[in-house]
Amino acid sequence: MAETEYKAERTITAVLKEEKQIDNVVRRLIDRGVDKNHISVMGRNFESQTRIAGFISKKDVILGGLRTGAIFGSLFGSLLSLLTGVGVLFIPFVGSVVAAGPIGSVLLGAATGALAGSAGGGLASALSTLGMSEDKAAVYETRLKAGDFLVMAEVPADKTGEYQMLIESAGGEEVHVSEGTLPRPCAEGCESPEDLSPEIRTHLSTEAQQDFVEYYKKALNETKDEMKAEHSAWDKIKDKYGEDENGVYSKVKVES
């Protein structure tokens, strides 16, 4: 199914205990028509994590929070190479997590601020803002911390039941269906700051919003990959701006 024809309307989230189950679920979802750009995976114990352990430094961990601890690198592994935007995130109360797909982009962009280490929030706080109950979000954070894996699939509403059964038959536990999909930085194109999602704009000054759009458009033109473009835009924003006391990137850094 072509990407332009795929209409994602709901998000199915589930816990899987083993990496081989993740591989099986992802491949089956893709084979059954789910667009790979709408599949997310998170886990602490991927066998290939050692290859990218160097992307997150001790300084990143000390600083805490996704916005300072998220370092994204190249694709790796037979399974994760199928997905977009693979990298390592440092999540308060969980630790370093390998993330792939749209969820990594959401967390990297600090969609709600709930992941800022100084705020004492964690993955559960962020997930609860995405339409999950606090109890279910807490279960996901606990299971991820214990070494299990999370898979999230954004699917058409009329096929929710079909894909939910597929995930459950492959060992999926604690299955949850959310109305809507994960937020994107520019859901309908990105020509001006008004096109940015509210989650992105909240963390950028007016000037920084304009810069983000320009950085994003340039990177998207070069990479043709929305997630890589967002990661690149955030990197450039953090190079140019510092955060104020409210966590808004508004202070232009003085070059030494």
Q: What is the gist of this entry?
A:
The chain is of the alpha+beta class and 256 residues long. The protein has helices at residues 19-31, 58-63, 66-69, 102-108, 123-128, 134-145, 160-169, 198-201, 206-223, 226-240; strands at 10-16, 39-43, 71-72, 87-91, 95-100, 149-155, 173-179, 241-243, 249-252.
User: With helices defined by DSSP (H or I, 4 residues minimum), what is the helix count?
Assistant: 10
How helix-rich are the residues, as a percent range? 25-40%
Total domain modules: 2
Give the percentage of residues in beta strands: 15-25%
- Give a quick account of the main beta sheet: strands, pairing sense, barrel closure: 7 strands, antiparallel
Shape: globular
Strand order of the largest sheet: 3-4-5-2-6-1-7
Radius of gyration of CA atoms, rounded to a whole number: 17 Å
Helix and strand run:
EHEHHEEEHHHEHEHHHEE
Instruction: Quote the average pLDDT.
Output: 76
The N- and C-terminal alpha carbons lie at a distance of 51 Å
Unreliable spans are 49-77, 110-120
User: Would you tell me the structural class of the helices and strands?
Assistant: alpha+beta
Count the strands? 9
Task: Tell me about this structure.
The strands form two sheets. Strands 3-4-5-2-6-1-7 form a seven-stranded antiparallel beta sheet, sandwiched between helices. The longest helix is centred in the last third of the chain and has 18 residues, at 206-223. The protein is 37% helix and 18% strand. The chain has two domains: 8-183, no CATH class; 184-256, ChaB (Rna Polymerase Sigma Factor, Chain: A), CATH 1.10.1740. Strand 4 and strand 5 form a beta hairpin. Helix 9 (206-223) packs across helix 10. The protein has helices at residues 19-31, 58-63, 66-69, 102-108, 123-128, 134-145, 160-169, 198-201, 206-223, 226-240, and strands spanning 10-16, 39-43, 71-72, 87-91, 95-100, 149-155, 173-179, 241-243, 249-252. The chain has 256 residues and is of the alpha+beta class.
